[in-house]
Structures are given as structure tokens and as C-alpha cells.
Amino acid sequence: MSDPVLLLGDRFQAALVLAFGPEHAGVDPAIRPSNHADFQANLALGLAKTLKKSPRDVAAAILAKLDGTGVVERTELAGPGFINIWLRAEFLSAEVARVAAAGTAGVEAHPTPERIVIDYSSPNVAKEMHVGHLRSSVIGDALARVLEALGHTVLRQNHLGDWGTPFGMLIEHLLDEGADADAHSIRDLNAFYQAARAKFDASPEFAARARVRVVSLQSGDEATLGFWRKLVEASRTHFNALYRLLGVTLKDEDIAGESLFNPMLGEVVSELESMGQCVENEGAKCVFVPGYVGRDDKPLPLIARKQDGGYGYAATDLAAIRYRLQTLNATRILYVVGAPQTQHLAMIRDAAIQAGWLALPARAEHVAFGSVLGEDGKVLRTRAGATVRLIELLEEGVERARSIVAEKAPELPIEQRDAIARAVGIGAIKYADLSSDRVKDYVFDWSRMLAFDGNTAPYLQYAHARICSILRKSNESVELASIAISEPQERVLALSLLAFPRALADVAESLSPHRLCGYLYDLATAFSAFYEHCPVLKAATPEVRRSRLLLSATTATVIARGLELLGIEAPEKM
RNA sequence: GCGCCGGUAGCUCAGUUGGAUAGAGCGUUGGCCUCCGAAGCCAAAGGUCGUGGGUUCGAUUCCCCCCCGGCGCGCCA
């Protein structure tokens, strides 16, 4: 247990029970980092009323029973009833040394691991990925990495848009043109998609054929399926290249697109019908969930089966949630999907509860996120008004980073500069996306995300590279060194290092990667202050030098590990 | 009309789940390289936490009414 908050929590709970009886065993000791001390315990203020004593008396009684052996240097009763806590320097030293020796940055596996499905990225076949797919891919991947690091079993599900109406018009258009899908790069298919779309909107005759083609696709017509497979294959190559460049861990085996659920749709609908949960309404088969009304004040349905006999996304999503619960045995399902789909996903979740598929302790959560905006405050688009292609965005990021690296580190060989440019450029884009509260929109701004000041990837990468430089120069193995905390900057750094597991737990609970970003920024800032005030290589004694080297090495480990969990590289030079 | 999400320094954003004097970066002003990477550090100035109520020892945080902005609301996904 390297986290002082947990250890102090145990000690204070024990003291509380000794002071006021076992009925208080479950009370949150409310240990918080403090501006006035290392930590503060706020439990006395909340207990005062139920105990019918003044908060200060409660705090004093708890302090009288507190066993701080080996951990607490001193305590202080302050203000209306706050308990300020200072930790023993020896305790901090030993805990940091343990973190350093364990090589896991202090993170321990969760006592009750879960099977967590994460639905993320989900691009559309036969369309290029655009900036809209960035957030789902990057946020979902960070959550997958963090939850895995905490010991959970993560089942990545890339819910590809590889089925449905668009394929009718795409295949029909391909047949019209006599084109061979093999000959087209994905970029051509992108243009192809737009042409098909235009035709679909302009020609009722074409639209009718497209709808018929959808039906033959859904009914398994071999010729139709042949074209479909070519489209899927070409798209998958494109997606994989982007995932590799972007550093997203999705693999082919994580693909669980809409087509996977096609064979289940009829069965899902008839199961819902037999339970009386799906009823005929205006020619469609509908699931009604209480609490949802439309514009006209009438109950809002999920359309499980359309008037024309086809199935829409509601049917697919119902089949998917059932599959994830009953076949994948998920205990937790995370949908990393944009905020506009909040109502739809809530209806899917409630319908699954209503059908008895989803029951506690299993749960389904929408990890909603806002839009990427341009400088005009509107959804990011190119100057021509088109959606921004993700590949172009990433390449521009790498290019901008490349010129900065060429300026700052001209002495490095070109191959190494290229690798650094990728790490910095891609890292900056991902970090900008991850570091703000995901439910909010954010403005895409190159100069801010590539800055070396503030809460950015380059700042963290720089802090890491600078430590690596010190370690290279030290020419000394410090694995077994002991740590001595004497300067205030060393204490702040040690406390920050020990907070890493807490930061990860926080991300897992809030499903907000930006909490990890905030933590890493604090850590890097703490290291910078330490670096300025505490000479490492030129420390006064060999013992202090070794201690500070180990503190530095541990910081580098935690920063690199934290960035890795965000899906961002940490170069040793930059 | 109903619903969801936002509103914190000039700008861009945090705020550890109700705690003490609301914090960063940019920008502005002023300092720090004969010294481990200055892509860095230190400091100053800058706030009616959208408005008004409520809950209580205590509210940026929880509840309610408004104001402003974004998004969603039957066979697209």
C-alpha cells in the first residue's frame, strides 16, 4: 500500500472506533491532500452533529486514540475541527523506495477485477476516419489501458459501421459505374461515398434500388456480399494504418461491427415480442421505455424493426448489448460515444434492463464526449467546409513537431528526429484531447497543444527527457539506493509520486482521463521545482546524490508509465 | 414544448466528489543560465465562480426558479 491516503484512512477509522464505538466503522475518514499540511482529515466536522459534540472535541478525541506509529510525524487540530497531518520523512522515503523497487510505479491490481467491454472508435466502412473519430478512439483507448493496468479484463469492441442503408447505395453506385472495388484506394471510396450519397438524395429511382440492395445484403445474397467484403477489407487496412500511427491498441480481433449482429436481429426482436416488450406500432415493431417522450408528447419508441422489414441501429444496439452481457459476460459496458447520442443510449440501456438482460451488479455507462471545435467556435471543418480527415490532421501535427525538433535538437540523427517528431506531434494532439474534461467541447489549437509550457504533452515529455539526460550522465546504478527526504521540494515530489495509484483509481471511477493528465502535470511541475532547488549530480554528498538520482529515476518511471496509459510515447531525448 | 450538457481571471482550462485564503498555462509586468537540458524556473498583477433563492457549522460543488450557449427528441447512425 503505497498510497498514504489509504493507510491514514485505516488509522483514522481505527481511532474513530476506539473513541466513539464500532458503529462508526464505516465512516469515511475524509483524508485529503492539504495546503496546510501533507494531508488533512475532515471527518470530525461531519460527525459532530450525530455525536452531539463540538467538532473540535470530536477531533481531539480521535487524535487521542490515533496510532500514528511509523507513519505520522505530527498532527495539529486547526480551525473548526480540521486535523492537519504531517508524515514522517522516513515513511515517505521507504514508500518511494518501495515504489522504485517494485517497478510497477506503485500500482496494484484491483481486488475484484471486472470484465469490462469498451465500445470505442467505431468508424464507418467505406468512409475515411475524420476528426470526429479522434475523441472516441483516444479516450476509449486511454480508458482501456488504465482499466487493464488496474487488473480488469478489458474487451475492446470496435463497433464498425459496416452494415445498413449506406451499403445499399454504395454497392448500387459501384455496380452503376462498373467499378472494381479492388482498384480503389480508400480515398477514392471516400469520393465514391459522396457521389453515391448525392445520387441517393437526387434520384428517387436510385434510392429505391439502394433500399432493395440493402435488403438483399441483409438476406445474405452472395454477389452483394462479395462487394461488401471488398469494401470492408479495404477500409480495415486504412483503419489499421491510422491506429498504428495514432498509437491506438485496437486490433482486427477487436472488430465487432454491426454486421456481426445482423444474424441476431430477428431473434432479438422475437424474444422481445414474446416478453411483451416489443409491439406493433404504425407498421413498425417498437420497444417503448417509460420516461421518453417525443416532440409531440407521445411516447418515444426504439424502432426494433422498420415498416419496410429492415432493421436499424436501435435493433443492432439492442442485439449488441445482449451479446455483450450474455455471450461476452461483461459486468460493465462503456460506450465511448459522442454526447448527442445520450438519449438513444439511455433508451438502449433502459430497454436492456426492462428485458432483464442488464441487471446489477452489471451496468452500462455512456462515456459521453463533446465536439472538437475550430477557432470560430463551431465544429472543426476545413476552410472549404468539409470534415477534417484524421490522417491529414495527424500528419500536420507530426510535420509541425518535426520543424520544432529540427530547431531544438539539430544534433540528433534524422531518423531519431523523425521518431521524436511522431511522439511529440501525435502526443500533443492526443493529450490536448485527453486533458480537458471530456463532456465539454474543446477548441483545436495547434500552438497551444504544441507549447512546452502548461499542461501539454511536450511539457511532460520534456520533463521526462531531462531526467533521462541526468540519468545518462550519472553513469551509476541507483536501484538499491536509499532515499532521504530533507528539502521541501523533495517532500512535495515524494508525496506526488505516491499519489499515482490514487490518480489511476480516480480515472477508473470517473472515466475521465483528464484526471491522469492533471496528476502528471502536477508531478512534472513538482519535479521541475525539485530540479531547480536540489542539485542531483552535484549534490553535496554521495548519499544525497544517490537518493536524488533514485527520486529522479522514479519520477521518470511514473511519467513514462502515465503517458503510456494515455497512449503517448515518452522519448528519452527530444 | 420536453430533455441532456455546459457557463470559473482578458484568453484557454483545472478545481481530488460539501471544507480553511478558488488554482494553472497563455498574455501583461519584473527577475534567474561561468552551475545536472532555459523546450525550464521564481515572482507580481488579474475573480460578484452566469443571476436569484434554498439546504447547513460551512456551497464553485447538492436542490429549485430564471438568463445565455451547445446538442437531442419515430423508422439515418
Account of the 3D structure:
The protein is built from 21 helices and 13 strands. The strands form four sheets. It has a four-stranded antiparallel β-sheet with strand order 1-2-4-3. A four-stranded parallel β-sheet has the order 6-5-10-11, with helices on both faces. A three-stranded antiparallel β-sheet has the order 7-8-9. 54% of the residues lie in helices and 11% in strands. Among the domains are: 4-87, Arginyl tRNA synthetase N-terminal domain (Gyrase A, domain 2, 2-Layer Sandwich); 165-235, no CATH class; 260-365, no CATH class; 457-565, Isoleucyl-tRNA Synthetase, Domain 1, CATH 1.10.730.10. Strand 7 and strand 8 (284-293) form a beta hairpin. The protein is an alpha/beta fold and 574 residues long.
Structural class comes to alpha/beta
CATH top level label of the domain at 457-565: Mainly Alpha
By DSSP, the count of extended strands is: 13
CATH topology of the domain at 457-565: Isoleucyl-tRNA Synthetase, Domain 1
CATH architecture of the domain at 457-565: Orthogonal Bundle
**CATH superfamily assignment of the domain at 457-565?**
Isoleucyl-tRNA Synthetase, Domain 1
Count the DSSP helices: 21
As a whole number of angstroms, the C-alpha radius of gyration is 28 Å
What secondary-structure arrangement, pairings included, does this model have?
Layout: H1 4-20, E1 31-33, E2 39-41, H2 43-51, H3 55-65, E3 72-78, E4 82-87, H4 89-102, E5 115-119, H5 132-149, E6 153-157, H6 165-177, H7 186-202, H8 204-218, H9 222-246, H10 258-261, H11 265-274, E7 278-281, E8 284-293, E9 299-305, H12 313-326, E10 332-335, H13 342-354, E11 363-366, E12 372-373, H14 390-408, H15 414-434, E13 442-443, H16 446-449, H17 457-474, H18 488-498, H19 500-510, H20 514-533, H21 542-565
Helix pairs in contact: 1-3, 2-3, 4-18, 4-21, 6-7, 6-8, 7-8, 12-13, 14-15, 17-20, 17-21, 18-20, 18-21, 19-20, 20-21
This protein binds one RNA strand of 77 nucleotides through helix 2, strand 8, strand 9, helix 12 and helix 13.
